[in-house]
Design brief:
Radius of gyration: 20 Å
Strand content: 25-35%
CATH superfamily of the largest domain: Endonuclease Chain A
Structural class: alpha+beta
Number of helices: 13
Largest sheet: 9 strands, mixed
Helix content: 25-40%
Number of domains: 2
CATH class of the largest domain: Alpha Beta
CATH architecture of the largest domain: 2-Layer Sandwich
CATH topology of the largest domain: Endonuclease, Chain A
Number of strands: 18
Length: 360
């Protein structure tokens, strides 16, 4: 029997399906995300977990949410000036403390350490296991993330659910993981910084013969170097990234790189898109938490799934890729905006070089 699977576009669609799944769950509801905040999105998630009849209900977050809330540092003048900001921080702490009264286990991994020295080392995974159903993608549990364009891939598959649950259990214990596991329509890759599984993921790009379509807000080294130097020059490469980017350095770097002509750059015009996905040769979908940037590669724990199911590939093309192409502006390599921001590109290159040396 084929897996039941579909793509959920936007937080509202995801939460609707996830809520129904959790309400019917008997065995487990396991939620992992980098960001959990004490706003409407966080309250909605906690309500789902508290009301679920599942015997094993757990939330695994990252300590990132202890130092960054609503895209602002907790330890900043914002905390002193903004009463709403302080209340949001306080509400997040109260939500986590109250969860255990409703049988919800809580774990926050990856402490930032003294003076935030371990701040870059994050668990960036976004995945949910709800009995035998899994959800994978880019959605975090905060209001600003919920407002962004994003997606979650839903798959009903007991074997895949067990794979993700086993990884969740390790992360919940504070153990960093890596590995590759096959399932019905592809494989799941658990990535940690500079692990060998990254090369396994990059092989999908190297093996492309016709086309590579990349959707991500943050694309940089090492993927750009791989596209330039290791992918057949006859492969048509398109990168779709938001015009309105909350991390403008990545947009400036893409504009600079686009002048080299080895990929077509499309800037998405409908606000911030946090969606991360790749379609290779119109036959292999890659989705998950990774942005294919230096932060993911050097510092973060990620989960990525490959999927060759024709139905889900076609659904991605029709409901995600084509609408994003239509909603984006193509910038030819000779466009006036391309090739600019050389200073920003050099800054990013110097930053990456320094981080590579510091990270060993």
């Amino acid at each position: 029997m084929a897996d039941s699977q579909n793509i959920l576009i936007g937080a509202e669609a995801f939460m609707s399906v996830f809520s129904a799944c959790a309400a019917a769950a008997k065995g487990r509801v396991l939620v992992q995300a980098m960001t959990f905040e004490g706003d409407e999105a966080g309250l909605a998630l906690m309500d789902v977990l508290k009301s679920s009849p599942a015997s094993d209900k757990r939330l695994c977050g990252d300590r990132y949410s202890s130092v960054v809330v609503n895209d602002r540092f907790v330890f900043s003048t914002n905390y002193l000036r903004d009463g709403d900001f302080r209340r949001e921080i306080s509400q997040g702490k109260k939500l986590l403390k109250s969860a255990e009264q409703f049988g919800v286990g809580i774990r926050q991994t990856n402490p930032t350490g003294p003076l935030l020295l371990r701040y870059p080392f994050r668990n960036h995974k976004k995945m949910v296991v709800c009995d035998d159903t899994v959800f994978l993608g880019g959605i975090n549990f905060s209001d600003h993330n919920f407002a962004w364009h994003d997606m979650m891939l839903r798959i009903d598959n007991p074997g895949l659910a067990d794979i993700l649950a086993a990884d969740f259990d390790q992360n919940f214990k504070g153990i960093k993981t890596e590995g590759a596991h096959s399932y019905t329509d592809g494989e799941v890759l658990f990535l940690k910084r500079k692990s060998g599984q990254w090369d396994r993921l990059f092989d999908y790009f190297r093996q492309a013969r016709k086309s590579i379509s990349i959707v991500s807000p943050y694309v940089s080294w090492p993927l750009l170097d791989l596209l330039k130097n290791e992918v057949d020059s006859r492969v048509n490469i398109t990168i779709i990234s938001p015009e309105t980017n909350n991390k403008s350095l990545f947009k400036k770097n893409l504009l600079h790189e686009a002048a080299n002509g080895y990929f077509d750059l499309r800037l998405y015009q409908h606000g911030m898109s946090h969606l991360k996905a790749v379609l290779i040769d119109d036959s292999t979908l890659i989705a998950g938490s990774s942005n294919y940037d230096f932060a993911s590669y050097l510092f973060e724990e990620e989960v990525v799934i490959t999927n060759t199911n024709p139905k889900i590939v076609q659904e991605f093309r029709q409901n995600v890729l084509f609408p994003m192409v239509d909603a984006s502006t193509l910038l030819p390599s000779d466009d006036d905006r391309c090739g600019r921001h050389g200073g920003s590109s050099k800054m990013l290159s110097l930053l990456v070089h320094s981080l590579k040396r510091l990270s060993g």
